[in-house]
Amino acid sequence: MRAPRALRTAGGALSAAWLVFLLLASVTASWWLPYQADAQDPAHALAGPSASHWLGTDDLGRDVLSRIAAGSWISVGPALLAVIVAFGAGIPLALLAAEHGRWVERGSSRFAELLLALPSIVILLAFVGAVGVHPWAIMTVLGVLLSAPVYRIFLGQAQSLRTRLYVDAARVNGVSSLRVNLRHVLPAMATTIAVQAAQLFAISVLIEAGLAFMGFGPSLPSPSWGGLIAAASQHVYDDPWLMVPTGAVLALTVIAANGLADAVAGGGREAEPAVRRTRGRAAVPAAPAAGGPIDGMLLDVRDLTVAVADGPALVTGVSFALPPGTVLGLVGESGCGKTMTARALPGLLPEGVEVTGGSVWFAGRDLAGLPDKDLRAVRGREIAVISQEPMVALDPMFSVGYQLTQPIRRFRGVGRAEARRIAEQLLREVGITGARRMLRSYPHQLSGGMAQRVCIALALTGSPKLLIADEPTTALDVTVQAEILSLLRALVRTTGLSVIIVSHDPGVVADLCDEVAVMYAGQVVESGTVAEVLGSPSHPYTAALLAANPHVAEGLPVPERLASIPGTVPAPPDWPTGCRFASRCSLATAECAAPVPVTPAHAGGPVVAGPVVAGPVVGGTVVGGTVRCVHPLSSPAPLPVPHHAEPGVSS
Amino acid sequence: MAVYLARRLAFAVVTILAASVVSFLLVHASGGSPGAITAGAGATPAQVAAENHRLGWDQPLVTQYLTWLGHAASGNLGVSLIDGHNIWSDLTARLPVTASIALFATLLSGIFGVLIGVAAAVRGGLADRTVTVGSGVALSLPQFWIGILLVYLIAIKAHLLPATGYVAFSASPSQYLQSLALPVITLAITGTAIIARTTRTGMVSALRQEHIRTLQALGTPPWRIRYVHALRFAAAPVVSVLGIQFIALFGGSVVIEQLFALPGLGQAAQNAIGNNDFPAVQGVVVIATVVVVITNLVLDLALGALDPRVRTA
After folding, report:
1. Residues β-bridged to residue A329
2. Most exposed: A397, A513, A617, B92, by fewest CB within 10 Å?
3. Distance between CA A324 and CA A299 in Å, rounded?
4. In b/e form, how buried is each residue of B293-310, taking b as 16+ CB within 10 angstroms?
5. Which residues make beta-bridge pairs with A315?
6. Are A256 and A15 in contact (CB under 8 A)?
7. How far is the alpha carbon of B226 from chain A, nearest alpha carbon, in Å?
8. Structure letter (DSSP) for residue A242
9. B207-234: pLDDT as tens digits
10. What predicted TM-score, i.e. pTM, was given to this entire model?
11. A247 vs B contacts (CB less than 8 Å)
């Protein structure tokens, strides 16, 4: 249940306590009140707080505390009624509209829209004018007016809930619609109902107080809070204190209702925090790897470790290198740290995740130690990134033309017209016909494939040396996938760009890449040329990944061993000290529990010494590389290699 | 676009008609009669009936409504039962007062709310928490209470501004501004709190959008990411809330106009209701609805101009 958890936060507990206290105090007021609410004592009129009158007295010498307590029910009760009416009318209507489809929904939605468009306070006043001052009746009308926003909110919820599978399943199983609503839909909306009810209650209390302040509250002798404040305002010249107690009680009640809503909404957690200010990187990146970069490599990642700040490592001791003009595939299942590795290179890790060790040598510089300001100069100009989700990677508010010309002008220092010409040129390069019209388009008008082409053009605006493509085709239709892949292939051929492709699909890697690094649970388990690694895998994980992959090149038989890998990738905190794949490996033995030796990623790299341990590598003695399997597949079954991969293309 | 506009206009007309029907029915459901008011206290039932006959109250409801509607369409909302004033000219004379308050308060709320909300979202930490708590408290206090507090502090204690009253712009621009200052500040405190919260939430969620990561990956300067792209993304909900604010201020002005003794629409509404001035009640409801409807139309157009997804849909 949500409610008790909400009460565990200080704000939630205090809010609930105040509301309960208020309720009890108002119900029991007649028993403990020191004075009758209308007992006058003209001798002590307008006195401040004292021992006999804790909150002072009003202009007729009546005790303020007693009057506030006596007035609490008439100040809060009608507001409660408004909330009950609003939900009693709004939610059933929303459920009905969600269930009975278009026509009912259209009718009730138009009606709700109409209610929302009416000036509610003025309608409320007209009602007062017509039927007189009856707080309970007035707040019932307010409830009817408020049922429109309630309906709006819950229609959306109910509609999306009804499409959920379990609700569908219940309906197909012949459960009556009332029971479906009571059992499945309403409970799922409980949190939203609680939040909205608390907020509407707060609003209703304020509206009721406002009406009472204007004299449209309960008739005079029975003191509602709004009326008490109105009376106090007459004495703001000679006794301003009189304003304070009632105002404070009213404000506390509203704060408590809102506080309760926040606590319930957060489910006991804090509200969504604002973005933290980007501070520079940690001054001392942990454990810099020994030695400089390998000569002739555009990118040399050495022993890279990425971790959640004050949390587990997500990527440990990853190393690989990339000669200019080659395409490297990072392949592995979801949750293996491929994306984190790729994003770490230009320093684009998500909030709260950072590089804690190792180095990223790029064009002679170690990017891992650079402050954000220097990395910004690298991004776009030297390393560009293509997103996984092209449909949301472009700013929906700006035209394609603006989004392309902006970085072109910044990167190339050209004027508006020239930038537009370059943008058209880039769009043509990524295979968009009608480039001029495309410049005037907005992102929501593009298909996924078109959006990805625009994103690639955007990545090319700074003429980068390295392009990082994170699952560039995963979100696209199969036919479009092939087009985007062949576009990337063409770009590599014509521009000499180096590319890192992150993919869970060995087929894509085989299709496009010269080199491949297979990642599992935050480590590289095997790397080398595509022909070596995918042609004759030595790590059982690579073999299993290939066997589970249905994308087989044409003309080759589907491998008999096509099978899923049992289990899932362990989460970072659960990584064992031994082989991380052991728990899912069909070849695992007792040896696999021992720490695993590593070998250098590429020939010419430093020699390996010592074991790799889970978590950040300590000290400079260990140089990460490939975590070799203790019993590699010595005579691997000849797995089919798609014919695109040409052995020997790479360095 | 033309179809869309036509649909919105049709809905606007329906809304105004609905409001007029509601107020018409409310007036007739009250059980009182205008004759009892114009004939005065102590009038005989025959005199009351005669007055009602003169005012057309004894005709069928539909006839009465259509007659009223016909007049209203030509700008004639009838005369007050109390003082015989023309309701249309009375209300249109009062409109500038309420409109001034609502406009200035919306403007102030917009400026300060956006500044504060952006600061909270971008700076985070203590600034963010202060804004969240501060706006929470501001939203929990009734506006009339804040108003009285301001009267006490600024008018009574510091003698900086007049406590109550209204001076027309044509009479004295400077006194006009002074007379509006306290009511506007009172309303703007609540408004600023709401806009600050909306802006803050909008900015925080905007800065987490995927397209912001694309911009970061291009090395876009942080100021451009925040103040061009994220702010633009957060602008639509802020503008919506500003519109809702403006409408709420028109309604909320009833209380504020009483507090500061301002001769606006709110005061007219209060007088009409307090005196059972039936035609005046109907007139106020209709005028208020027209204001709401026009605001919503302007809001729709503004959102269309702001968001290409709406504009080109």
Report:
1. A501, A516
2. B92
3. 8
4. bebbbebbebbbebbbee
5. A306
6. yes
7. 11
8. G
9. 988 999 999 999 999 999 999 999 999 9
10. 0.82
11. 141-142, 145, 149
Residue A181, phi then psi, degrees to nearest 5: -65, -45
Q: Considering chain A, what percentage of its residues have pLDDT values greater than 90?
A: 20
| pLDDT tens for each residue of A251-308 | 999 989 888 888 887 643 444 555 554 444 443 444 444 556 677 788 999 889 999 8
Helices assigned H by DSSP within A37-63: none
- Closest-CA residue to A238 (of B164, B152, B182): B152
CB contact under 8 A, A129 and B276: yes
SS3 A519: strand
Burial class (CB in 10 A: 0-12, 13-18, 19+), B49: middle
Q: Residue B142: what are its φ and ψ, rounded to 5°? A: -65, 145
Comparing CA positions, the residue from A225, A243, A226, A247 lying closest to residue A234 is A243
How high is the ipTM of this complex? 0.84
User: Does A243 contact B148 at a Cβ distance shorter than 8 Å?
Assistant: yes
Pairing, β A626-627 against β A598-599: antiparallel
Place of tokens 């299993």: A544
Sign of CA dihedral B2, B3, B7, B13: positive
List phi, psi (to 5°) of B219. 70, 25
All structural domains of chain A: 2-269 (1.10.3720.10)
Pick the closest to residue A589 from A581, A598, A597 (CA basis).
A581
Is A213–B144 a contact, with Cβ atoms under 8 angstroms apart? yes
pLDDT at A141: 92
Question: Which among A172, A197, A198 has a CA at the least distance from the CA of A184?
Answer: A172
pLDDT at A552: 53
Comparing C-alpha atoms, which of A118, A210, A117, A123 is closest to residue B281? A123
Closest-CA distance of chain B to residue A39, Å: 26
